[in-house]
Give the backbone structure.
Amino acid sequence: MLAAPLVMGQELADALWQDDVAALANPWRCPGRYTSPPMPFPLELESASLPLVATAQSYSSLDSRVDATGGVVIRQGNRLLAAGSATFDDATSLARATGNVRFDEPGFSVLGTSATVDFGASHARVDEAEFVLTDRQLRGQADTLERRDDVLELDSATVTSCPPGGATWQIRARSVRLDTDSNVATSRHARLVLGRVPVFYAPYLRFPVSGRRTSGFLVPDFYRGRDGFDLSVPYYFNLAPNYDATLTPRWIAERGLGLEGEVRHRTRTANTRLDASFLREDRQYDGEFGRADSRSAGAFSPSDRWALGVDHRGRRGRLRTEIDYAAVSDNDYFVDFAVEQGLASRVALERRGEIEYARGGFVGRLLAQRFQRLESGRESYQRLPEVGVSYAGPLIGPLGWSMGATGAWFDSPTGTSITGRRYHVDPRLQLTLNRPWGFLKMSGGMRGTRYDLSGVPQGVDPRPRRTLGVGALDAGLVFERDVSLASGPATQTLEPRLYYLRQSHADQEHLPVFDAAELTFSYRQLFRDNRYAGLDRIEDADRVSLGVVSRLFNAMGSEVMTARLGTMVHLDEPRVMLGGPRQMDPEVVGELSGRLGRVRVISRLAWDVGGDELGELGTGLSYRRDARRMVNLAYRRRFPDVDQTDLSFHWPIPGIGERVSAFARWNHDWRHGQNIESFAGFAYANCCLAVKLLWHRTIDAPRNLPEGVRGSHDGLMVQVSLKGLGGFGSKVDSRLVRGIKGYRPGGT
């Protein structure tokens, strides 16, 4: 005889709920979970293969039939049936029970008024059932519950994942079929109820009952903005364990019906994602202008809109592959369709493919690159392709050598500019001495470049050359001392550094500008051998850079604070300029980064000593107490173009409770006197429901309109997340992740 203790006469969910004290302080998590009652046998053991054991206060038998009354308990392995009275047929292994019926199996418990259980198979039927699926963290009620093998069928059912004592959300359906093998529930004539208010009806609805991926419709996503109601209904295809797809019809009230798709593929050596979207005959766009801004005197003719993206990252042994491709139908695509300002303000789309092989000191690379410009201005050259090889290795003792060589083919997207090929070699010798207290590096070499050009004006050499000599000395020391912090002992370093660069001059005004660009002045740039990106312009230099770094490490060896200060002094005035001649005065740059308690500090300053003026100032303070309490303040000024502040926060509202939070962002451009992006909203969360409401105003500057013609547009977003069901509206979390530093969805 073996009988487990039973809990009768109270709600089953209360009986199986186990509190989690550690989770009580986090309103975004349920403070507990449903747990199965103790099982006497290993869970992998098949209960149907074990003998039956029954107990009762009284019983009678006739042939193969046994009638039992009073505290009847029938157990077979980990399967248990308890009731006030029961009839069991030994010939068919069929039991019929009435009166306070309880039936338990691993991961499944149910109470009811009557039940029929086939102990020879995995078949049970319970009337007026209250059930808990402990392995799925779901509970509910049904007029009739029937279980056959891995399928659970419910009639007139209510299902929720909320803890006992209430149901913030629930699905009420005429019927529910739950396949525990595929972890999918299918319901007929289903209503989603929040509190007591029905908010959604579907004649047919599939929803997951675990974290496992499964094919089916996902919960819709909607947004209210300048183009009216925006509704997306995604369908997910679980094609295989390592690849899947999502197909999403999208309806925008003022624009029309479109289709979006995503395909993901993952292997041990590569991750690939393909995105595409198409909107047929946009009612607000004619291919050049929006309807409100159309310059056409004739009838407005809608235009198709589309976008395509490919993202691939792969690595197999020493071989690395990368593809980053993006294309849109027109320059204003992201302005019209992107919810986030970061996407709407993009000025170019890159199309890039790269293959790289590395072994020892050898690296070989093949690159193809082009751009789609989304605003007027200088077109970016296409690099079709670029081949590069480099090698670095030892010679004798601390003496080593390196060689780099590249060949690049540049083409113009318009066909009207100078095009051609560029070949570059860069051999060097170097002496390196490293010690715990410092280092010394000396290097010297030659940089040679040759072009083979087409489309040059008459009288200009189509095959120009450039040869430069380069030598550099880089030396630094490291001093350490023990200090005391409020948190305990620490170590402070002082690391002075001297860098001298000598690079010969060659006239470069006759050379094309395929990929050259001036770099933003920074501490790291003090120790570079060229202040320009690319190879079309290489500076002539006779300069000294002085810098000092101080780091603070705690007792665990973690870096707490880092301060950098440096300057560059030109011993001879540089003659190679990009964008015209200018005076090269010494500049001082300082950087500070670290953490003071819960406050993270990042600051940067560049000062033009000769002009006695500020070149750039940027500072940011971030306070993060926990996953739901954070404040960020940043200011950036770069003379003369940028003058912006950025304030954001996410914080529970005092006096209301931990479950309600407010959030906001204010990103203001003081130079133009306008807000780049502003949003504000509220979030409510309990352990089984999270609701976020967000209003935003975003700068709107269509690129097909004249300079200075810009406005803003408003929008309202709603996001609802239901534990165990998913949710609708994902754009709020996307906006918060981009706009509030440190925010993560879910508040964890």
The first strand starts at residue 17 and ends at 19. The chain is about 5% helix and 60% strand.
